[in-house]
Design a protein that fits this description.
heterodimer; A: 226 residues; alpha/beta; 5-stranded parallel beta sheet; 9 helices; 11 strands; B: 7-stranded mixed beta sheet; 14 strands; 18% strand
């Protein structure tokens, strides 16, 4: 397992590098944002530990560049500013997990194991419907290349619609496939989620068929593209 | 326009009563001690009403005087004619001149004359009188007689009562003819003239009252319109307090411009100070935390007493730093004015993020909030409150977390309820957790539930944090926070 550790503090880097090596990882170290970006771009890492307060280029920018360039390597961000706004902006940039400094080394190792395991899930084909793409393996979706931030219920809804695109799906069917047995099956909630999903992927993509249900379909100009 | 706000005691919260109370409210407003409008209107109206009353009195008095003079001129002329043309014939009989005015010949007509002789003893005997008097007699008071005697031939005026009890104005001329003393009297009913004077006074008063009322309205309008910029200023300040705007936006007349400019400068400055403080605090956190992380990481690798102490102390320092920095930040924030944060996007991004973090556990975060709901405070703080509570819930839940934001129009607040389907908390411990929050100084920083941070923030916004049992099985934490309902509109 190869890991990139992007952290500017030499003492902390040394300590972490030692702990990570002990845990069986091969660790590369980048002391600033520029080098971190370069290494992350060129080397095939299984996971990246990224401090947000890096010199030269800050962590969030580095992460944004990677994601723009299509890198899907899981990234765990380290932040000294425990504020939620920092965590949220880290996630918006494409982080997979966060840890607030200072932290216990065991905690870091546990999070790392989980990230690597998650990323190693077996491949599933990409689902495409016009400009909407959904990657079931990474549980990620995008519209026209822009990553979508979906809650799990929204994701499930989109996933189901994508698997049955161009077909009318009734509300009952959706309720049955979205919720566990014990979740409250209020049919109103489907409308709420449908509304939010429409907001995120574009209103015209989901058609309401009166009395029957919903249908996901590509936009008119997108059909010709396929 | 947005509604007034709840928590602060802004002037907009005083709900106007039904339409009928308008005059009452106006009156109250005008008599309110510290009202500028009231002052101006009171001042203007006192002077104005005073001058109107004086004008009214002066006009009426002048008219009365003029009417009386004209009236007296008439009676005096009759008395003079009487005096000039009265003779005594050879038999000693008083001969009066003929009068052609029919009023003197019609009985009790209201116009009378009388010639009275005063004998040596001072007794008054009528020598002749107009037919209109018939058998009646116009009395001559002694004082008037004395006055008339003093001014022989000139005549004096006095009031008397006529044969029909009508008020009379009498002109009396005292003179001697052939050594005999006479008083020549002419009198006329003065009631028509008095009526004229009264009518004039009434009309004048009515006109002046109309003028006064009209002018009061004009003054009121003038003051209101003149002071409109001040009211605008008050409105804008209320909006800033209510959090619907951040600075003064309207342009003001030259007299208030300095105030508005200063106020804006002050608002900018306070915002800048808050911003600076937060940056400062953030830098301090960053500067302290990496060394702490180093300490913890180096101690973590080793066995023994010293590393154990280091670990514990570093942990305590971390908690202390967190605790005090957050408090400082909360204090800095609560002074910032006018921030508003739409609730929906914050909940959405937190839900997305935490579901990803707790992906292995398969946590589902179900959030509900009205589209247009806005938190009256800073985004960072809402993120902090909801983030910490959601993280707790995600840690303790089995699979499900629910966060619901509801608007409460009564006090312009929202309740943010976070529920999970985990083991929950014994009711006996609710108090314990709350108590810990209540006594902030003794609160254990970074306590297991991380609730003290949330509690501090909620309190900084004048809200409350309550605990209960969730319908889906576990703990329910509700935070009450200031809110508006027009979030989407802005």
């Amino acid at each position: 397992m190869r890991i990139l550790l992007a952290e500017d503090d030499p003492d902390l880097s040394r300590q972490l590098k030692a702990s990570l090596s002990d845990a069986g990882y091969v660790v590369d170290h980048a002391p600033d944002g520029e080098e971190a970006h370069f290494l992350g771009d060129t080397e095939p890492y299984d996971c990246i530990i990224l401090d947000l307060g890096l010199p030269k280029i800050d962590g969030v920018s580095v992460l944004e560049r990677w994601r723009r360039e299509g890198k899907t390597t899981p990234v765990l961000i380290l932040t000294a500013r425990g504020a939620w706004s920092d965590k949220v902006s880290g996630f918006d940039a494409g982080a997979d997990d966060y840890l607030t400094k200072p932290f216990h080394t065991e905690e870091l190792l546990a999070r790392l194991r989980a990230l690597v395991r998650r990323a190693a899930g077996h491949a599933q084909p990409m689902l495409v419907c016009g400009g909407v793409r959904l990657d079931p393996r990474a549980a990620r979706a995008s519209v026209n290349g822009e990553p979508l931030r979906l809650t799990s219920l929204e994701y499930r809804l989109l996933h189901y619609l994508m698997m049955h695109q161009n077909r009318v799906i009734s509300r009952t069917e959706l309720v049955e496939h979205l919720y566990d047995q014990d979740f409250d099956r209020d049919s109103n909630t489907i409308e709420v989620f449908m509304g939010r999903l429409r907001k995120k992927i574009g209103n015209e993509r989901i058609e309401t068929v009166r009395g029957l249900g919903y249908r996901l379909k590509p936009l008119h100009d997108e059909v010709s593209d396929l | 326009m947005t509604d007034g706000t709840g928590a602060t005691d802004s002037p907009k919260t005083v709900a106007p009563k039904a339409g009928g109370g308008f005059l009452l409210r106006l009156f109250r407003r005008l008599t309110r001690k510290n009202s500028l409008v009231g002052r101006l209107i009171r001042l203007a109206s006192v002077w104005f009403i005073f001058s109107l009353v004086i004008t009214g009195i002066a006009l009426t008095a002048y008219f009365h005087q003029a009417a009386l003079q004209r009236f007296q001129l008439n009676v005096k002329q009759i008395a003079d004619n009487l005096y000039a043309d009265t003779d005594i014939d050879h038999s000693g009989k008083v001969v009066t001149p003929p009068f052609f005015d029919t009023r003197t010949t019609r009985v009790y007509s209201g116009l009378y004359w009388q010639v009275s002789e005063i004998d040596a003893k001072g007794a008054i005997n009528d020598a002749a009188r107009s037919r209109s008097l018939w058998n009646e007699h116009i009395p001559i008071p002694a004082t008037t007689l004395a006055d008339a005697k003093a001014r022989i031939g000139e005549g004096v005026f006095y009031d008397s009562i006529g044969p029909e009890d009508e008020p009379l104005r009498v002109a009396a001329v005292y003179s001697k003819i052939d050594g005999r003393a006479f008083v020549f009297l002419a009198a006329e009913d003065r009631a028509p003239m008095d009526k004229d004077v009264r009518r004039f006074a009434l009309i004048t008063a009515a006109a002046l009252i109309v003028l006064a009322l009209g002018s009061l309205v004009a003054i009121f309008i003038q003051v209101r319109v003149g002071l409109r910029p001040l009211f605008d200023l008050t409105d804008e300040i209320a909006h800033i307090q209510g959090g619907t705007q951040q600075r003064l936006l309207k342009s003001y007349p030259a007299e208030i411009t300095p105030v508005a400019t200063q106020l804006n400068a002050f608002l900018d400055y306070s915002q800048e100070v808050v911003e600076r403080q937060r940056m400062h605090v953030g830098n301090l956190a960053h500067a302290l935390k990496t060394p702490l992380a180093v300490l913890m990481a180096s101690a973590g690798n080793q066995e023994g007493e010293l590393p154990e102490i280091m670990r514990k102390q570093a942990e305590t320092m971390r908690a202390q730093v967190d605790h005090h920095l957050r408090r400082a930040r909360a204090a800095a924030r609560s002074q910032a004015l006018g921030e508003r944060t739409p609730v929906e996007p914050v909940l959405d991004e937190l839900a997305v993020m935490l579901e990803q973090v707790f992906q292995d556990k398969g946590v589902i975060i179900d959030w509900r909030a009205p589209d247009d709901l806005a938190f009256r405070g800073e985004r960072q703080d809402l993120q902090e409150i909801a983030g910490n509570l959601l993280e707790n819930a995600s840690i303790w839940c089995r699979k499900k977390v629910r966060i619901t934001a509801d608007f409460n129009p009564a006090d312009q607040s929202m309740s943010l309820a976070i529920e999970d389907d985990g083991p929950g908390l014994d009711e006996a411990r609710f108090d314990e957790v709350l108590k810990r929050g209540a006594r902030l100084d003794e609160s254990v920083p970074g306590s297991g539930l991380g609730l003290s941070i949330v509690d501090e923030l909620v309190r900084a916004y004048g809200g409350t944090l309550t605990f209960g049992k969730s319908q889906i099985g576990g703990l329910k934490v509700s935070a009450k926070l200031p809110a508006n309902l027009d979030g989407a509109a802005v």
